[in-house]
Amino acid sequence: MPVGLVPPDPAALFPVPGVRLGATAARIRKADRLDLLVVALDAGTRVAGVFTRNRFCAAPVSVAKEHLAGRSEIRALVVNTGNANAGTGEEGVRRARQTCEATAQLLGCAAEAVLPFSTGVVMESLPVERIVAGLPGALADLAPAHWGQAAEAIMTTDTCPKAISRRIMVDGVPVTITGISKGAGMIRPNMATMLGFIATDAPVGQVLLDEWVREVADQSFNCITVDGDTSTNDSLMLIATGRAPLPPIEDRRSPACAALRQAILDVAVFLAQAIVRDGEGATKFITVRVEGGKSREECRQVAFAVAHSPLVKTAFFASDPNLGRILAAIGYAGVEDLDVGGVRVHLGDVLVAERGARSPAYREEDGQRAMAEAEIVVAIYLGRGSAQATVWTCDFSYDYVRINADYRS
Amino acid sequence: MPVGLVPPDPAALFPVPGVRLGATAARIRKADRLDLLVVALDAGTRVAGVFTRNRFCAAPVSVAKEHLAGRSEIRALVVNTGNANAGTGEEGVRRARQTCEATAQLLGCAAEAVLPFSTGVVMESLPVERIVAGLPGALADLAPAHWGQAAEAIMTTDTCPKAISRRIMVDGVPVTITGISKGAGMIRPNMATMLGFIATDAPVGQVLLDEWVREVADQSFNCITVDGDTSTNDSLMLIATGRAPLPPIEDRRSPACAALRQAILDVAVFLAQAIVRDGEGATKFITVRVEGGKSREECRQVAFAVAHSPLVKTAFFASDPNLGRILAAIGYAGVEDLDVGGVRVHLGDVLVAERGARSPAYREEDGQRAMAEAEIVVAIYLGRGSAQATVWTCDFSYDYVRINADYRS
User: Which end of chain B has the smaller Cβ count within 10 Å, N or C?
Assistant: First the structure.
């Protein structure tokens, strides 16, 4: 059961003019589930992306990067679940290219105009023949309204599809932003998450789009962790079809630009948090906010140390305010000259620790009350500067072990 | 159930002339269990130690470091379990000092001659009055043969006491080395482990002893991890009573010296591995050996990334050769210029991956057979240099969650 997350209402997912989506059950790993998605983009669409920094990056990631760098106009994304096509060497790259070629042939565009994405089990051969066989079905399903199916088609151990829309006015013109994401395990994005696709009809220029995708990833997907495992397949795509009747948006100082960027960021943060809320075995949604650091980097170091500690995560699962575990994680986070006498820790509205020790005002029953919530904020003040960072994570339960001990079976 | 580890046979634990041990049940946290240990050292004994690098280091760690640095002769160690006296601020330091003072008074030595150690729950007040009340009982129990009780008295979530002896001949004189350790969770030592005490009657000079304790920690306790959580209380003490009838051992180039150092290292490696074999919820003992790196540091980075990955650890628990998870961990370990095409992975004697992908010769049934063992070696060849490193760890089971969700109750 995801924490504070319900399946999206299809009626609340607004089509983005210029984008059509089609999904099918191609039996890539399991029967009777959507596992192949094609996203077709109208001519004139601009696409920007960020990808995993895992050195074992997946074959489709290599091919997508190459196609994006080639700057031929991107006309389609093709996404399969059930197999990550990672740790598959040169044969994997060949199969990712075959997927692009088959899609391009059916759509009547160049293979370089197609970006491939895969997610699922690592180090197994991609059944490209099933993908090729499934493509006509996915294309027959193409429609602007199919964001809901698309969100479903990219799920792996997710228990809930993740999708959201925003509509804002830019210079009196309604602009739509709709995004989907997936991911529940192997989640500690380093550049982007497992898979996230955000589209808008705003005519955003390529330079600005490239900047935004990095900035947005940095403030959304790069702030989440489930298990600390950076995936081989993380990809975030930002798509601007330019179909809204607006002049090109290229000056980041314009007020319209700021509003649009904020709306895109809101969508990205929702999708990133949705991944944590549906994290494998999650029963709690935890925000770790670190303030008063010398740099954003050291704040992130501390936040991730707390968010990755199996001891902290199991204590949250147990709703046990065993808060010394948080202090221990702060202490080993790698801030070498940290003066623990300046550290303060809040759990929700409860002051837990100050001056390097338990606060005299702290009462166990207050800690217990704060731990019992399904959504918890841990606020840590380092007392040595003005930088800050926030990380979102979930707890560590029996179900995490069950899901990952069973995943392939 | 620890993996490949049985309780030590008390008859096989040799006394170390110059060392007496006494334990008692002081009711520090639980009734009816040994939880207070005094180790009394004869005059002339030399002691060297290494301690946690956690910035929230425990009060007894601060006091022990101070007393060791003072170079007054150390005459006793006092160790309690049930409470770590960490995250307890200045009041914690006061209580650690009170413990030393009470011990010193009973033994007739200076408070600075006593080193305090604590282990157990973090951020709770040390019940120093119970320790003081328990000390006479511990002292009444002092005897050279009590290493077995001592190993029991320092356990927390350990299911099995950890102790070992070696006897070697040095220049025709028998020399004894006996050591004990404890720890099962919050184990990712950075300098030393939770608690490890190794004593010998060899007359090792102080300079050499100080060097050895660091070198030995680096090749034993600093190579293990259970959950990646570096404790606030890690301490390793190396004790040389000098009672063996030998001239002072001060020249590290002498053959006698090499043999003694190796025997001490053997004891330390056994004790460190014993902690992993009895790691919280462990069902597998896993050796991660990384070879062919440019530096030992990058080999350790890769080994720890694999050893800490919850996805890898749950796959081991399930005996599921989901080996792509190992590749993914190698890929995100932070070796920025790693050429994955040069990476090779063996599981036991099975070649799993080569040239960045699954080996053509790999068969799932071979992987399954290797994963079914209780003790597994993962060998990773980076193919970029001649450095190597080994890390020992365990798997991640339901019981890890159970133990840590229940620990304080």
Answer: C
Which residues, at least 6 apart from A268, have a Cβ–Cβ distance to it below 8 Å?
A179, A196, A198, A216, A217, A219, A220, A221, A236
Q: Mind listing the pLDDT tens digit for each residue in B153-207?
A: 999 888 999 999 999 999 889 999 999 999 887 777 765 556 888 999 999 999 9
The reply to whether A231 touches chain B by the CB within 8 Å rule is yes
Residue among A320, A332, A358 whose CB faces B87 most closely: A358
Q: Is A241 a catalytic residue?
A: no
In tens, the pLDDT along B84-126 reads: 999 999 999 999 999 999 999 999 999 999 999 999 888 899 9
Q: Work out the number of other CB atoms within 10 angstroms of the CB of residue A33.
A: 15
Burial of B51 (0-12, 13-18, 19+ CB in 10 A): buried
Whether the CB of A379 is below 8 Å from some CB of chain B: the reply is: no
State the Cα–Cα distance between residues A67 and A76, nearest whole angstrom: 11
The Cα of A346 is separated from the nearest Cα of chain B by a number of Å equal to: 14
Average pLDDT taken over every residue of chain A: 91
Angle formed by the axes of helices B310-317 and B324-332, nearest 10°: 160
Contacts of A329 in chain B (CB under 8 A): 229
- Got the DSSP string for B32-80? SS--EEEEEE-TT-EEEEEE---TT--HHHHHHHHHHHHTPPP-EEEEE
CB atoms within 10 A of CB A334: 15
User: B317 falls in which pLDDT band (50, 70, 90)?
Assistant: very high
The domains located in chain B, with CATH, are 10-277 (3.60.70.12), 285-406 (3.10.20.340)
Q: What is the pLDDT of residue A381?
A: 97
* pLDDT attached to residue B374: 94
C-alpha–C-alpha distance, residues B189 and B50, integer Å? 11
Whether residue A57 contacts residue A94, with contact meaning beta carbons closer than 8 Å, is answered with no
pLDDT at B46: 93
Beta bridge partners, B236, equal B50, B196
Chain B contacts in chain A segment 148-207 (CB below 8 A):
185-186, 188, 190
For residue B81, the model assigns a pLDDT of: 94
- Checking if the pLDDT of B138 tops 50, the result is yes
* Chain A residues in contact with B358 (beta carbon < 8 A): 87-89, 123-125
Say how many CA atoms lie within 13 Å of B251 toward its Cβ. Answer: 5
Using DSSP's 3-state secondary structure scheme, residue B266 falls into helix
Residue B54 CB burial class (10 angstroms; 0-12, 13-18, ≥19): buried
Residue ranges for chain A with pLDDT beneath 70: 190-194, 407-409
For every residue of B149-210, which 3-state class applies, written as one string?
A: HHHHHCCCCCCCCEEEEEEEEECCEEEEEEEEEECCCCCCCCCCCCEEEEEECCCECHHHHH
Predicted local distance difference test score (pLDDT) of residue A193: 54
Strand partners, A76: A40, A114
- Residues B194 and B233: their CA atoms lie apart, in Å, by 6
Q: What per-residue confidence (pLDDT) applies to A192?
A: 47
ipTM of the complex: 0.82
The pLDDT value given to residue B156: 87
